[in-house]
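User: For my dataset I need records formatted as: sequence, then structure tokens, nothing else. Please produce one.
Assistant:
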Amino acid sequence: MLSRVLCQVARYFNKMVPEVVFVLGAPGAGKGTQCSLISKEYDFVHLSAGDLLREERQRPGSEYGEMIEQKIRNGEIVPVEVTCSLLHKAMQKSGKTRFLIDGFPRNKDNLEGWNREMSDKTKLLFVLFFECSKELCTERCLGRGAAGSGRSDDNPESLHKRFNTYLKDTMPIIEYYDQKGLVRKINAEVAPNEVFKYVKNAFESSGIQIVN
């Protein structure tokens, strides 16, 4: 009797552990657009590491604001402790249990920080990797900037730095998870509705069904 109760309690708490999908790809690969579609159909909460950092940068009285602004403008990585803290707070605030984490982990330090701070508090389902050429991503980012995205890093100089950071720091993380069989590669060079078809295949092949 006691063992059955303990098993039921264990299953309950396992269900409560937040489930995470990392969403990675070059700047302009369309991660944000696809995360919005995924959130609507699969009831995942979209957490953009970049958006959370930008919000914190603009928050009056933030102890991290000036540092975050400088890092973003230079295309550099914000310290992992800050990013993990913001992500964890956003998870708790949402009251949900399934999350898309967009643009994280972006380097070895991010990965080690996540494993240190969050691996025992979450369950990683898989990694969505949006593949897109540098040329097309640059075109999209510059178009976004010209349309008034409000992002200080949607300009040629910052984009050059961001791409160098992506290739040097983020690609090894994708390769690390690929070796573990956790990466789902998505062709992000087609129209958004076509990209989402590939995304749906990735979710359904992992046993996650549309709920909305």
